[in-house]
Design brief:
Distance between the termini: 52 Å
Order of helices and strands: HHHHHHHHHH
Helix content: over 70%
Strand content: under 5%
Number of domains: 1
Structural class: mainly alpha
Radius of gyration: 18 Å
Shape: flat
Number of strands: 0
Length: about 200
């Protein structure tokens, strides 16, 4: 049991360390009223549960999304980031009240956060699947429970960082650019790293 828990903690940390950055940005947006904190947490859980469910199904020998096309999920954070960037550019030169500001994730809401979580963790499926496939059912259940507990820990850490006054004050001047930039960068990274852009071009070559 202890070995299973330790392995689960290590696997989660290794595959979700980048989520801390994304979650911190999301909680930073909550300080401006762009999105309620509970939606960030609920969206994170919804997205992560979807990743685990897909991995379990894949471990059972079924394929929901072909591996070679899963990278297209990167379009989700890319689209949200571009939307936020366009809004920021439109606001430039206008006398808008900061309290009236909307972040890049407002349009997506809870489902947008879930989509970002799924897109950012799409590569986790390739690691979780063999673990679930080779583990006894009891160990798989323990692993999933540990994962769900650690999601709460990740959210707590990100919230403590993203809502700290020193952090919000330091990022206040660049926040309108930071949120879109993080999501655009994340989306492009997923699309490029997964190789789907090359495969898409090859279809029409």
């Amino acid at each position: 049991m202890i070995a299973t828990i330790a392995a689960a903690v290590g696997l989660f940390a290794a595959t979700n360390i980048d989520d801390i950055v994304v979650l911190t940005v999301l909680f930073l947006a909550t300080t401006r009223g762009a999105l309620p904190g509970w939606k960030v947490i609920a969206g994170q859980y919804l997205g992560f549960i979807a990743l685990v469910a897909i991995s379990v199904v894949a471990a059972a020998g079924l394929t929901i999304v072909p591996d070679e096309w899963v990278g297209f999920l990167g379009l989700i954070p890319l689209g949200i980031g571009l939307y936020g960037l366009i809004r920021t550019l439109r606001r430039r030169g206008k006398d808008d009240d900061d309290n009236d500001d909307e972040s890049a994730i407002r349009a997506g809401g809870l489902l947008g956060v879930a989509g970002i979580t799924i897109a950012n963790g799409a590569d986790n499926i390739s690691l979780y699947t063999p673990v679930f496939r080779t583990s006894p059912i009891a160990d798989t259940v323990v692993t999933i429970v540990v994962f769900l507990i650690l999601v709460a820990v990740w959210c707590l850490i990100a919230r403590l960082v993203g809502t700290r006054r020193a952090v919000t004050e330091a990022l206040e001047k660049v926040e309108h650019w930071l949120v879109p930039a993080v999501f655009i960068g994340l989306g492009l990274y997923i699309l490029i790293e997964s190789g789907v852009i090359v495969r898409f071009i090859d279809l029409f070559a």
